[in-house]
Amino acid sequence: ATSTMYYGAPSKRGVPTDIASALHAHASEALSPDDADGAAGDFAETQRLRDAATTSANEGSEDVEAFAEYYRALRALESRIPISEGAGHARVEFEWFDVGRGVKAAPGTIASRDAEYEKCAVLYNYAAALSRRGAREANAGRSDEGIKRACAAFQQSAGAFEMLADVSERKLGQFAASADVGRDFCETMIKLHLGQAQECFYEKAKAKKSSHAIVSKLAQQARVYYEDALEGAGKLVGYLDEDLTQYLNFKRAYVGAEAFRLAGKIVLDADETNVGPAVARLRQARDLLAQTIRDARVVSSDAELERTKKFLDEVIAPELKAVERDNECVYMERVPKFEDLPALAAANMVKPIQPPAEHLSPVDVKLFQSIVPDSGAKALSRYTEMVDELIRNETDTLAMASDEARVALREMELPETLIALSTPVPLGGDLEERVGAFRSSGGAGALSASLSRVDELNRQCSNIVQTIRETLDTEAAEDAASRAVHGEGAWRREASSSKNREMMQVLKRYEVDLEVATKSDTQLKERLEGAGGVLEVLSEENIKNNAPTLTQPLALLEDDASVASEMQATLEDLEAIGNERAGIEELMRKTKSEDNILTKLMAQSGESLDALFKEEMKKYDQSKDGVMLNISKQADALSRLRTLHEKFVTIYDIEALRRDVESHEHSVRHALSIVGDLRSGMEQGVRFYSGFLDAARRTLTDVQEYASARRLEKEAIAEELRVQKARADERAAQMATQMNQMHFHQPPPPPQQYYHPSAPAYPSPAYGAQTPPPHWQNQPGRYANWENQS
């Protein structure tokens, strides 16, 4: 069968009205012009919210929040400025169109000066927006999420219509301005939307190929809801659109026929020879669909009509024909009458879900808070001061009690000493955190890894220094060889030993510093190897095994054995008493937050308020009694605890426990100090080698540039000497006559400056020395010299 279409309730269209001006005029007259001006922003906001709500309604929007915001504002307004025909009330004309489309529906707008009708109209649109949202989700596709959202929206719409029915009946009674906010109309809408929500479950189960029994029960319950909606629509004949009645008829017929059809399949699934009831169920389905089609007063192109016809022609009729043929030819079972068939079982999966209380509650609305008469404001302020003083005094009393208990427990070293009987004493201060940080960073393995990194940096630095040495030595050797070949007189350039003096000095410092750093690395390695036993103290197992506990005496008397358990019970009582205080304070705050006596104050015109205040303050008596009882119970508990503690310290060796705790924490601190010292040394080593590596790389670049320039210079001088020798040989015969004209070549210009000597900039290599003696943390920086250089 073709997919079903779902109904979305139409919106109740509204007519714009100037609510802000009407409210401002009333406030100016009833209160004062200043009060009216002070609330002008609230009036304007109310106007904006109404305009937004009527616009959403007129556009058929699904913007539920627009209606919820305006509804909350109306609820906040009604307690400050009543709107109705009553004396002294504000006059605002509200106009809305009737939702009904029948002959009995109002043809034009319906006007009312009652804010209750305005609220009902807004609440109707709230419910209708949820209805349209559900219809859109359901009609858009058949995905699981879409069906789930549609089902939720339909149930929420039913809940909103249920709330509308209650509000209308309670506030408007039988005098509702239009039937679309009345009980009968709302009940019809509730059943319709529950039917659609139930049908969503039916479609989902059918798509998942659930059992015939499950799908049949879901369809039957949807049929029940649609029949209830049809019954309600019967009370609104002439008001409701006939299309809606036809829609309900088709829905009822379709899901009803499906329930009958599946009921027949359930019979055959149980016993394939029991064909009679199956034939009867299919005939029920056929007759229900056929009768609905005959009664329909819609055009042949109507989607629900086409769906119903298709379901009858393509599903019900062929199945009925096949089952009847099997029965006539094979089984020849008696076909029971419809009235003899058992009633179909139904499974309800939906219910009305009313809007969350906070969604339509004015509790958090900030509008109109300034509209309070002067007398009421002064009286309210006086009462508020009385409440605040009471709460402040009682809260201070509870705080003092908490401080008293805290000090008493600290003096008795509880509950730590009591816990030590069964549980090792944990590390105090920041030791636990520091040990955890050491373990999480890798423990001793991380120190070894750091030392390996230092060794790797040492190797890199050594290779660069060796390369510098080899480069300078190679260049010096080449210069010496050329000088030996051509002679000192002909080889006219500065010797390498003079030219590279500064670079050799830098190299020497590198070699010396690298040697010192290597010794520091060796010292670090030796110290790390020697610290293995100390570092083992920080292992989880050792700390757990070495944690001190309070040892019980070997000979413990029976009376003494119960002291610890009694102390534990008393401590638990004290904790419970302390927890009660939060509840007492919360009770006072809650009582104050719910303490709204403004309406009572306004009713006390010209009368003394003392009696009213005295009566209203009684609501805080429960909190005051709770404070007194709490203080009394704590005093009793502390008295018992002190008595038990005196016995406890005579039974158990508390001093020994203190010594054990101090010794244990001292060993952990010592191990942590060694870890910190080793880690600091390795960090300094890394910083040294990093700086050294940068400086050495720069020097290597300078040295390589120097060697390259010297090589080019050497080749140029050698070439010049060769040319000179060739010319000398050529002119040998003419030497006597041309001696005075001999051409002497000037020596080549000095090479471009290629080295700018500068002191290497990197930290001191002396970072591996042994740590200072105990109390080193009280001495200024152990590596001050290195840090200054870095």
Structure explained in plain terms:
- This protein is mainly alpha-helical and 790 residues long.
- 69% of the residues lie in helices and 1% in strands.
- The protein is built from 27 helices and 3 strands.
- The protein has helices at 19-30, 33-38, 40-58, 64-78, 115-140, 144-171, 183-207, 212-234, 242-270, 275-295, 303-331, 357-360, 374-411, 416-419, 431-440, 443-490, 496-499, 501-530, 532-535, 540-546, 558-593, 598-602, 610-617, 621-651, 654-730, 735-738, 784-789; strands at residues 14-15, 94-97, 109-112.
- It has a 3-stranded antiparallel sheet with strand order 1-2-3.
- Helix 7 (183-207) packs antiparallel against helix 8 (212-234), helix 8 packs antiparallel against helix 9 and helix 16 (443-490) runs parallel beside helix 25 (654-730).
- The radius of gyration is 49 Å and the shape is extended.
Can you give keywords for this protein?
extended, 3-stranded antiparallel sheet, 790 residues, 1% strand, mainly alpha, disordered C terminus, 27 helices
Précis, in short:
This protein has 790 residues and is an all-alpha fold.
| Share of residues in helices | 55-70%
Quickly count the helices: 27
- Strand arrangement within the widest β-sheet reads 1-2-3
Spatial separation of the terminal alpha carbons: 85 Å
